[in-house]
Amino acid sequence: MTLALDIRQLVKKYSGFEALNKLSFQVQAGQCMGLLGSNGAGKSTTIRIITGQLKPNQGEALVFGFNPSLEPKKIHALIGYIPDSQSLYDELTVFDNIDLFRQLYGVSKNKTYEVIEKLNLTEKIKEKTKALSKGLRQRVLIARALVHGPQLIILDEPTTGLDPSSAESIYLILEELKKTGSTILLTTHLMNDVERLCDQIIFIDKGQKIEEGTPLELKRKFSENTVDVVVSEEGQYKNYKIKKGPDWLEELKQLQALGEIIKINSHEPKLEDIFIRLLSEKK
Questions:
Q1: Nearest CA to 187 among 202, 168, 173?
Q2: According to the model, what pLDDT value does residue 20 have?
Q3: CA–CA distance, 18 with 13 (Å, rounded to integer)
Q4: Kind and range of the H or E run holding 152
Q5: How many Å apart are CA 59 and CA 57, to the nearest integer?
Q6: Which residue(s) pair with 79 in the sheet?
Q7: In the sheet where 183-187 sits, what is the strand order?
Q8: What angle do CA 278, 191, 176 make, to 5 degrees?
Q9: Per-residue pLDDT for 277 more than 90?
Q10: What is the pLDDT of residues 23-33, one digit of tens each?
Q11: CB contact at 8 A, 62 and 8
Q12: Are 47 and 23 in contact (CB under 8 A)?
């Protein structure tokens, strides 16, 4: 498969502080990767290197085989970046905010109309962005990032601060982008975003990768090796704990003989729990 991102042993230092410490990971084309970590973990530095805003002290970041430090123009044509700050030109209309970026990339004006329609912004096309809600402003940001047809979309906290309805509209847009083969790199503190969108997750701390896997793989890895069983015995509910293993189904049958089994719960952790556990283990 084609590699959209190939991050190789990145090191970045600021006045003696090491923001990235030999960070490595890969993202396959068409995949949605969650880059997760606490504030100061190195996420923003990684994005700045990928987008060509920073040069690493060591290592390299390849975007579809191109090095951002050496070929920035090629990289910019391949990437659409949606920052965490809603940096729009408030006195310009929705159309002009998007069309300005379309002109910078030198693509057809039809692309502005296409992306406005795609993101359901047609009714707002003549409104100044300062009058828009936060959810609509986020859609304008996404439209602006997509106007040149990028292959890699980088999203920094795309639904933070949005109401549930606005967040849902963003989810639907991103899910449609995934269906059409776009590669997405997502940074967020909201595990709902990760659960819904990400095929793969990387946890980083202090500039290093500390864990990687699919959401399901990580949940299985960090799950407790027990099952809780609630049994109704002569009108009373009693709780039992069974250790997973070769004989656990036999133990379940024995409990069934005591009465009616009301509930069986496995201890599958939430991604938030895994995140907290990983960070606490690194302290």
A1: 202
A2: 95
A3: 4
A4: strand 152-156
A5: 7
A6: 152
A7: 79-82, 152-156, 183-187, 32-36, 200-205, 208-213
A8: 135
A9: no
A10: 999 999 999 99
A11: yes
A12: no
Quick one: angle between helices 134-146 and 94-105, nearest 10? 20
The yes-or-no verdict on residue 270 having pLDDT over 70 is yes
- Whole-number average pLDDT of the chain: 90
CB 220 within 8 A of CB 255: no
Q: Is 153 in contact with 178 (CB distance < 8 Å)?
A: no
Q: How far apart are CA 202 and CA 42, in angstroms?
A: 12
CA 17 to chain centre: 26
Cα three-residue angle 151-8-208, rounded to 5 degrees? 105
Model confidence, pTM: 0.84
Q: Is 117 helix (H, G, I), strand (E, B) or coil?
A: helix
Q: What SS3 state is found at 74?
A: helix
Res 1: pLDDT: 66
Question: 33 and 201 in contact (C-beta within 8 Å)?
Answer: yes
Tens digit of each residue's pLDDT (9 = 90 or more) over 182-224? 999 999 888 888 988 999 999 999 999 999 999 989 988 887 7
Nearest 5°: the CA angle 272, 275, 277 is 110
Q: Which residue has the tokens 């590699």?
A: 3
Q: According to the model, what pLDDT value does residue 111 have? A: 95
Largest distance between two CA atoms of the chain: 76
